[in-house]
Amino acid sequence: MSSVGVIFVVLVGVMISSSSDDVSLIVAKGTKCPISFGSRPILYSKEAARVCLNITEEFLQRVEYRIELDISRSVKARELLKGKTIFSPRHEKHEVHLNDSYDIRLPQQYQPPNRAMEINVTIGDILYSTKNRVVQAALPVEEFPVQFETFESSRENCDTSPDLSAPVLWISSPRGISSTHYDRSMNVVVGINGTKRWSLWHPREVEKMGIAPWLSLRYQQIQHRNERVENSIDLTLSRGEVLYVPPFWAHRVRSSETDVVVALSVLYPSHVEERYSNAYFQIQIFLERWNRKEKLAAVYTFLDILVETFPVDDRFQNGDGFISNIVSQRYLGYKPFSRDNVLLETKCERSSRLHEKNTIAHFRDTARDFATRMWGARKGLCGGHVPLESSVIWLNVANLVEELILFAVDNNVDDLVTVFTECYSTTTKI
Asked: Does residue 7 surpass a pLDDT of 70?
């Protein structure tokens, strides 16, 4: 099959949500199509998907045929017990992420949804033999040639042009539900069979909902306490329709109550990831030559300068205020297994700062470069010179702070939790 091309023009749409202008639905035959995937979700009607993305009936049938070829293939699937929301760790292989221990020790209201039980089933089992069970599986289809050229145009001036991620077929028996999360990548989802009910939240809502801290296996998972979270954009994805989900948009997906649901998902690294990784490398590299006390002092000094250079929020005058805000959003209920008494005896180095002239100058240059990359304040940057939204910048800076402090305490997660919960917060005690 030829590449699935995307032609760009002007988006003409009608609103899906009466209270939001964040999602547009292309409906008219011959509607001109967007040239790139931007910072707003797009739901393409079946006709618009055919016109703009070449998602034809023939394409859908080819996907179905591809599934039939693998009908006896054994795959690792996840079974949801008692209809609970699925929780799937996203970074199990990272050397500094913990196992379930921290999540298990949390008070009940902060604990994640039930972790799904891993089972081995065939594709045919999910399609035809799981009527009274809720089972989900992801089937990578590396050899299936799907390519959205618009992904490339969305990464203008990026240093690298990574290969398009292999498409993944998500297959779910009726009543499947995902836990709320966000992706840092761009995501295009094609409805193949059945219907999926999507709830999406703008990045500005993510921190309000409570994103899991970086130390947790649930990183990028949301820890809201109930299913009724306000300000969602709700829509249904059916066969032949296509949904584009931008980076950092939180989403929860529910499968049909009666039908097996199949969707094809294509992920692609976003320019936001590229901007962040470039900036993070420049910041991390100057920490390597110091001991722990000096590293923490360097992080706090740099963060003061960063907040001064480009205020991610007018409420914050220095790095301490920003860290305290992260704690209030992400570390409710967390406490270390063991405290680092050296950190506590020195008041966690919270008041330590570096004053060496050349170091300060380097920090200011690095902070300006990071701010330039985040704000898109110069042409020729990855993703063009379009600024990132303030809420996306907030998420990236918060993640950066966690990573830098973790690096400063030698990747000791207990010490990271000590810094956040013992040094910066009086509200996170269980």
From this structure: no
Report d(CA 273, CA 185) in Å as an integer: 7
Q: Model pTM?
A: 0.84
Per cent of the chain over pLDDT 70 is 73
* Beta strand ranges found along 51-166 (DSSP E): 74-80, 117-122, 134-140
Q: What is the pLDDT of residues 140-157, one digit of tens each?
A: 877 665 666 666 666 666
Q: What is d(CA 101, CA 368) in angstroms, rounded to the nearest whole number? A: 39
Cα 349 to Cα 149: distance, rounded to the nearest angstrom: 49
Burial of 385 (0-12, 13-18, 19+ CB in 10 A): middle
CA atoms of 95 and 97, how far apart (whole Å): 6
The strand pairing partners of 264, in sequence order, are 169, 190
With bands split at pLDDT 50, 70 and 90, how would you rate the model's confidence at 13?
very low
> Which residues on adjacent β-strands are paired with residue 189?
243, 265
| Residue 201 confidence (pLDDT) | 92
DSSP 362-412: HHHHHHHHHHHHHHT-STTSTTTTPPPPHHHHHHHHHHHHHHHHHHHTTT-
| Whole-number Å distance between alpha carbons of 55 and 106 | 45
Amino acid in position 397? V
Name the amino acid, one letter, at 286: F
The answer to whether the beta carbons of residues 384 and 157 sit under 8 Å apart is yes
The helix-helix angle for 319-330 and 390-408 (nearest 10°) equals 100
